[in-house]
Amino acid sequence: MLALLHTSPLHVPVFDGLRDAGHPGLALRHLVHEDLLGRARSAGPDAVAGAVGAVLARAVAEGATAVLCTCSTLGAVAEAAGPALGVPVLRVDRPMARAAAAAGRVVVIAALESTLEPTAALVREEAAGRPVALRTVLVAGAWERFEAGDRDGFLDAVATAVDAVTGADAIVLAQASMADAADRTTTSAVVLASPRSGLAAAAALGRGRPAGGHVPRGTTRGVHARGHAHRETSVTHDTGSPGGPA
């Protein structure tokens, strides 16, 4: 079973759809903890490291053989919990960042300021010392549209910001919620989104490693296995998290 840590319930159907299309038979358990993002935005991701670790430890105790964190703001603290959990933990944007790091001139676009530096740092990490020209762009007002349920307005704002970028070889959509904006752009640059590549990498890790094997940060390779004929999904939606109040 692959556990997915989300900070928005809107990600659940997205990843279920990607699973059904590309990984039939992969059992998913969705852990929705909206409060973690709010706390991380106000106090920094390290402030919720203990809560994230507790959520993931519970998922592993209940049968998860790998974990995918779909929140870019929390990705680093989720991966840091991996050694203690004994199962692979992957942030959803790592495969995307690896692809971006090979491009040369990279622009990271986000609707949340708290996501910009973690994503930029990940691209630099994946570059592993290779030169990469990196810029960041915050899409003003986009997140407010997302929170208000205006998905089209949110995606249009992101797409407009993407098309305004010049001098980039690759444009990174830093948040999983932005992925569908790529279809609304006209830019000639490569537009990278995280959900599809992140789920594929996590599925490979969960299937290609024994349940007790830890995969270090930055390792996303694994062996794909044939899926079963059935599919399974469970959702846990918590309004509060271990380690502190919402």
Description of the molecule:
By secondary structure, the protein is of the alpha/beta class. It is built from ten helices and nine strands. It has helices at residues 11-22, 34-43, 49-61, 75-80, 82-85, 94-101, 113-127, 142-147, 151-163, 195-208, and strands at residues 2-6, 28-33, 66-69, 89-91, 105-110, 133-138, 170-173, 190-192, 233-238. Strand 1, helix 1 and strand 2 (28-33) form a beta-alpha-beta unit. The two termini are 27 Å apart. Residues 209-232 and 239-246 have low confidence and may be disordered.
Characterize this entry briefly:
The protein has 246 residues and is an alpha/beta fold. 41% of the residues lie in helices and 17% in strands.
